[in-house]
Amino acid sequence: MPDAELTILRPALVVVDVQKAIDHPRWGPRNHPQAERVIAGLLALWRARGWPLFHVRHDSTEPDSPYRPGQEGHDFKPEVAPLAGEAVLAKTVHSAFVETELRERLMASGQDAVVFAGVLTHNSLEATVRASADLGFRSFVVADACWSVDTRDLRGHLWPAEDVHALSLAHMHGEYATVLDSDALRARLPAPGSGED
Fold first, then answer.
1. What is the phi/psi pair of residue 83, to 5°?
2. 168-177: pLDDT as tens digits
3. What is the pTM for the complete model shown?
4. SS3 track for 156-184
5. Residues 128, 115: contact at Cβ < 8 Å?
C-alpha cells in the first residue's frame, strides 16, 4: 500500500492524439508497440470507476498531414476510441491546452491529479504535460502508455525511438510531472470501495 501522500485521488485521464494517423509510414519506427493495449486498459479502469476522462483529437490544418480532418487518419484508433458521451477535445497545435476547454473541464471535474497518455511522447504529449504543470495541475505520465519514433537531430544523427522516448520522459520527470509505468500508477490509485471513487 503506498504512502497516503503518494496516493492519486480523483484522477482525470487525458489521452492525446491516439488516431489512425500515427500509424502512417511517415513517422518511421516506434517503440512500445503495446502502448495502445495499455491505454485501453486505463480507459477501461477509468470507465469502471466513473472517473473523468478526456480524449484529445488533433485536427491538423496542414494539407498533407495524416491528421487532417476528412480522411481516415483523423479517426481515433478503434481500441482507444471514445464511447458515446465521453469528452472529445479538438486541438490544432501541439499542446492540448491551447484554444481548447481542457483546463476549464479539468478544473470543473474536481480532480486531484491529471494522468497523461498518448503520442508522441516527445511532441504533443510533452507539450501538453509541460503546459499542465505550468497551469498548476499535479501531473503524471504513464511511461508504457505513450511512445516515440526515430528522430534525426540537427547534426544528422538518427536517434532510436526508445532513446527519444526515454529522454523526453527524463525531461518531464520531476520538473513537470511524475513519470511512472502503468503498474506503479495502479498501485497509487484508491482501492475500489475506499470512499475515494
1. -90, 160
2. 999 999 999 9
3. 0.94
4. CCEECHHHHHHHHHHHHECCCEEEECHHH
5. no
Q: Write out the three cell numbers for 71.
A: 480522411
C-alpha grid cell for residue 32? Answer: 512500445
C-alpha pair distances (Å), 49 with each of 27, 107, 155, 187, 188: 35, 19, 48, 15, 14
Dist CA 165 CA 32 (whole Å): 9
- Tell me the pLDDT of the chain averaged across its residues: 94
* Cα–Cα distance list, 74 to 62, 81, 116 (Å): 12, 12, 20
Q: CA 64 to CA 156: how far, in whole Å?
A: 24
d(CA 100, CA 95): 9
List the one residue out of 168, 191, 195, 144 whose CA is nearest residue 42: 144
Answer for the pair 39, 80: CB distance below 8 angstroms, yes or no.
yes
Q: Does residue 3 surpass a pLDDT of 80? A: no
